[in-house]
Amino acid sequence: MSRNQILSFIIFLSLFAVTESCNRAPVGQPKKMAVVISTLNNPWFVVLGESAAARARELGYEAQVFDSQNNSAKEAEHFDNIIAMGYNAILFNPTDADGSVLNVKRAKAAGIPTFCMDREINSRDAAASQLLSDSFTGCVKLGEYFVKQMNQQGNYVEILGLVGDNNTWNRSNGFHSVVDEFPGLKMVAQQSADFDRNKAMDVMETIMQAQPDIDAVFCGNDAMALGAYQAVLAAGKADQIKVFGFDGSNDAIKAIADGKLAATVMQFPVLMAKKSAELADQYLNGQTDIHHKMPVEVELVTADNVSKYQPEN
User: Fold this and answer.
1) What are the pLDDT digits (tens) for 195-212?
2) Taking residues 263-289, what's their average pLDDT?
3) DSSP secondary structure string for all residues of 93-157
4) If pLDDT is split at 50, 70 and 90, which confidence band does 63 have?
5) How many beta carbons lie within 10 A of that of residue 59, not counting itself?
6) Residue 201: how many CB atoms within 10 A of its CB?
7) Residue 123 near residue 105, CB atoms below 8 Å
8) What is the three-class DSSP state of 61?
């Protein structure tokens, strides 16, 4: 073997060793899961994030929760940091079904699998799994109850969540698939409040000024429902306008028990969070044949069954 051939062979071995070391976590380095949540300004998402992190820790991982503050640029920054810090997996609650795809693909290219919780992204192969509440079916159930409570007639308002989130439209479409069949029910306004309680209060106040004859309001989550109720109460119309939500938050359950909200749809954030962490652990341990997209059943909560859902003291 010539001197040049020997030198080339040594360089090849060096490059191979570097590549192999990049594909393996250093011996003794702790396993880590990142939990990226759309916003921690909503108690429901706080439960989702904390439950995911807690289950990851139980499975032997270090876990940190990152708050995207409903800001896609902030979310991208989190992914940059997570990739640079060498996390093993990401438990992810996206800010935008389309806009978040690139972040997940960047993580995948870096060898970090992503597991979506509660919200999905519009890609079939970017995330390792997507665990989602069955929002459409839940709002079909809610729509059927809404029609009965309204006696098939009246004016109503719809307050939407984030327009870039598929959950917003799955809930809206499920609701309208039922309610639009009844010509006596008329939607007089539809506006987004970004799943935010304070924004929903402001939106509802503005709508009531333009539309004084309102009988009900359907909100895409409980935070907005509680904000809308605050506006309705301040206007002295709490006995006239029925408020419907979605999530099954503790505050909403209490409000139904107190006669303030008409109904909500119960999601199970703790279940979704824990299962996502478990799927990530299974994936990292070689079980990669998991279902890509898995719906989680939801339940309608009304004054008739609210006692079943009230937290124990």
Assistant:
1) 999 999 999 999 999 999
2) 95
3) --S-TTTTHHHHHHHHHTT--EEEESS--S-SSSSSEEEEE-HHHHHHHHHHHHHHHTTT-EEEE
4) very high
5) 18
6) 21
7) yes
8) coil
- Secondary structure tally for the chain: helices H, strands E: 10, 12
Report helix, strand or coil for 185. Answer: strand
Asked if residue 95 lies in contact with residue 72, where contact means CB atoms within 8 angstroms, the answer is: yes
Pair 157, 127: CB distance under 8 Å: no
Asked if residue 155 lies in contact with residue 188, where contact means CB atoms within 8 angstroms, the answer is yes
Summarize pLDDT for 120-153 with one digit per residue, the tens.
999 989 999 999 999 999 999 999 999 999 999 9
Tens digits of residue pLDDT in 228-251: 999 999 999 999 999 999 999 999
Report the C-alpha gap between 193 and 85 in whole angstroms: 35
Is residue 68 classed exposed, middle or buried when 0-12, 13-18 and 19+ CB atoms within 10 A define those classes?
buried
Tokens of 253: 């359950």
Length of the chain, in residues = 313
Task: Locate 176 and state its tokens.
Answer: 């309208």
Spell out the residues 6+ positions from residue 69 whose beta carbon is closer than 8 angstroms to its own.
39, 40, 41
> Which residue's structure tokens are 């029910």?
185
In this prediction, residue 16 carries a pLDDT of 33
Beta strands in the chain, from DSSP E residues, in sequence order: 32-37, 62-67, 89-92, 114-117, 129-133, 154-160, 185-192, 216-219, 242-244, 263-266, 293-296, 299-302
